[in-house]
Amino acid sequence: MSQRQIIQVFEQYQKARMQFVQTVSDLASRPQNIEILQSAGVLSLLRPMLLDVVPTIQQTAALALGRLADHNDDLAEAVVKGDILPQLVHSLSTQNRFYKKAAAFVLRAVAKHSPELSQAVVACGGVDALVFCLEEFDPGVKEAAAWALGYIARHNAQLSQLVVDAGAVPLLVLCLQEPELALKRIAASGLSDISKHTPELAQTVVDTGAIAHLAQMILHPDAKLKRQVFSALSQMSKHSVSLAEMVVEAEIFPVAISCLRDPDEYVRKNVTTLMREVVKHTPELSQLIVNSGGIAAVVDYLGECHGNVRLPGIMMLGYVAAHTENLAMAVILSKGLPQLALCLSEEPESHVKAATVWSIGQIGHHTPEHAKAVATANLLPKMLELYMDANSSEDLQVKSKKALKSILQKCTYLPALEPLLYDAPSNILKHVVCQFSKVLPHCSKSRRLFVTSGGLKKVQEIDAEAGSPLQQYINAINSCYPEEIVRYYSPGYSEALLDRLENYQPA
């Protein structure tokens, strides 16, 4: 056999390996092929190819493994059990940039599924190796490493702390300053994932100067980058007053509020979430957003979107209103209540309705004026209906009841209370009747209207337990009227009159 023939055998074998690994990689990119590949034992065939003498075969094998592990947690677990991770981690520090990208992709694909699988990546030294890759010159390698670190950090505070301890945060902040758009996005996303768990982790990110760099990008033309920037700022703001103040001090308002007009739905949602996380802390922070035109902008935003993306805006209005009666009045004057009423009638999801009811409660519970604004928006019967609806979730029922009670205890606008006399169960009814018992003694016009509208008659029909608060309130109402009027509207009075007529003997 000649030398050429012998070399040809090796070339054919190399070609066959290359064809196999490329075909498997292509097949692995389609979900419908995954099960067949798995049952054919693809993982055990790919593993030796990670050590192939041909670099392209190594990279393609790693890419195929990443695609398989990315598909479901069973395959990701099989990659861990096949002892493939230590091999990949070792090669992250020795191989070329193409292989590093593919290896980081596999680590990300494994880590994304669960804290346990992320822990497996940590256990084989994956975090340190990935942080080392953040110092690479090639932006593609940095991006792949930052992405994997973000997926590890997002699961819980413990894993996030390991990423921080490995020195990832300052390097991610440097990545924010790189010219490559994709790298900026992933770095901002990674900082968001680290910040979200605890105040301490968020403080670590803030201490590296991340806020200033993120603040510079809020008007960037790329929507996906802005999504991540606002998400990261939200995750930092949510933990404490001091962190929220640091975000505000970066002078992102009122500029950020202009992004509520952004064409991208998720940019708008994340801006609203940031505003919600800032205003919830103190009246002063709320006032700052109000002064920047934040409430009117959020009310407009709620009118332009539907579904879950409304949730942060609904809650933002509630948080602002909760602080003081002046802030609640600012929400009312910005037409917040009609917009919340629309959300309540349009949204089918219980959790969105529950948040809306909660916000209405925060607006209406301050003073009779606030309660009247809620009542005239015809929201009391709607909240009562949600409380009594058997299809409402438990949370929605609890929030509806609590909001109703808090508003009723302030409401002195009787025309809005009267319909509730007919529909409310006794635990709500007592609050309604109580308000009548407070207002009627002091207003002759209301007393007259209460008779002519049928309210007094309805009160006489209420079956209250003797000595109960409800009975006491009814007695207080009755004492506002002459005895014969109360008797006239009491149940059975007409029958009693007829009986007297029958028994009456003319002289």
How would you describe the overall organization of this protein?
By secondary structure, this protein is mostly helical. Helix content is 75%, strand content 0%. It has helices at 3-28, 34-39, 42-46, 55-71, 73-81, 85-92, 97-111, 115-123, 126-133, 139-153, 157-165, 168-176, 181-195, 199-207, 210-215, 223-237, 241-249, 255-258, 265-279, 283-291, 294-304, 311-323, 325-333, 336-346, 350-364, 368-376, 379-388, 394-408, 414-423, 426-439, 444-452, 455-461, 469-478, 483-489, 493-503. It is elongated, with a radius of gyration of 33 Å. It starts with a helix and ends with a helix. 48% of the residues are buried. The mean pLDDT is 87.
Notable traits:
single chain; 507 residues; mainly alpha
Average pLDDT, all residues = 87
Strand content: under 5%
**Helix share, percent:** over 70%
- SS class: mainly alpha
The DSSP helix count reads 35
What general form does the structure show? elongated
Terminal CA distance: 147 Å
How many whole angstroms does the radius of gyration measure? 33 Å
User: Any low-confidence stretches, pLDDT <50, length ≥5?
Assistant: none
Number of strands: 0
**How is the main sheet built?**
none
In a nutshell, what does this entry contain?
The protein is mainly alpha-helical and 507 residues long. It has helices at 3-28, 34-39, 42-46, 55-71, 73-81, 85-92, 97-111, 115-123, 126-133, 139-153, 157-165, 168-176, 181-195, 199-207, 210-215, 223-237, 241-249, 255-258, 265-279, 283-291, 294-304, 311-323, 325-333, 336-346, 350-364, 368-376, 379-388, 394-408, 414-423, 426-439, 444-452, 455-461, 469-478, 483-489, 493-503. Helices cover 75% and strands 0% of the residues.
